[in-house]
Input
Amino acid sequence: MIVVSGTDTDVGKTVVTAAIVAVLLQAGRRVAAYKPTQTGVGPDEPGDMAEVTRLTGVIGRDGVRLRAPMAPRPAASLEGAVLPSLTAHLSVIGALAEHHDHVVVEGAGGLLVELTEAGETLADLAAARPRSGVVVVARSGLGTLNHTMLTREALARRQIRSLGIVIGAWPEQPTVIEQTNRDYLGALPEGLLGAVPWGAPALAPAVFADESAAWLPGLLQRLGTP
Ligand SMILES: Nc1ncnc2c1ncn2[C@@H]1O[C@H](COP(=O)(O)OP(=O)(O)OP(=O)(O)O)[C@@H](O)[C@H]1O
Ligand SMILES: [Mg+2]
Output
């Protein structure tokens, strides 16, 4: 299981999820995508998995869909919904893993956002499944070093494997701050898997697929054989 988390909401997790799916498809792997909790959508409104489908063709699944654009627990309580348990998510992921080489799971917000009624987080989900790794999606600009280091520390404390960091939106003309951030993140032990260029979501899906491997040059080697 490849868990796509991030330093925050809106950092580009969905686009990075799509890029990871695209790289794996190009490598001939069978890939499934899953979003345990999708908030901020009405019953027929597209969520993050619809964006992954648009960019890659892979049809992603949602564990639960909630209307309010907020963290899952308050969003569920606003509409009187009960969030699926960690066991329920693990069984969906287990079923997907039977027929796919990789299950790519996109979190909601950052790593420690509560996903279940019992208050379990994406970190708990990652820790509960053997051979899981977490990709940390980070912003490029000021503040990202602290947020990234906090997320890494939370992973290390739980002995969850970090597969590496991905910058969600890398500008064409980076500032000195962005370039030094990238250099710093790249020098960490797990390092940078890559960066998705700014504007990638607007690319035609065929171009997105063709270019994705160049954005995440470290991914396939880091994952090894399925
Ligand atoms: N590389 C990029 N270039 C341009 N826009 C981007 C890029 N990556 C993400 N965006 C845009 O930024 C916004 C947030 O990105 P995205 O939805 O991937 O974030 P997220 O981390 O998945 O958020 P959430 O926590 O809601 O799941 C979207 O409108 C998306 O299209
Ligand atoms: Mg998203």
User: Anything to note?
Assistant: The chain has one domain: 2-219. Strands lie at 2-6, 31-38, 61-65, 102-106, 133-138, 161-170, 192-197.
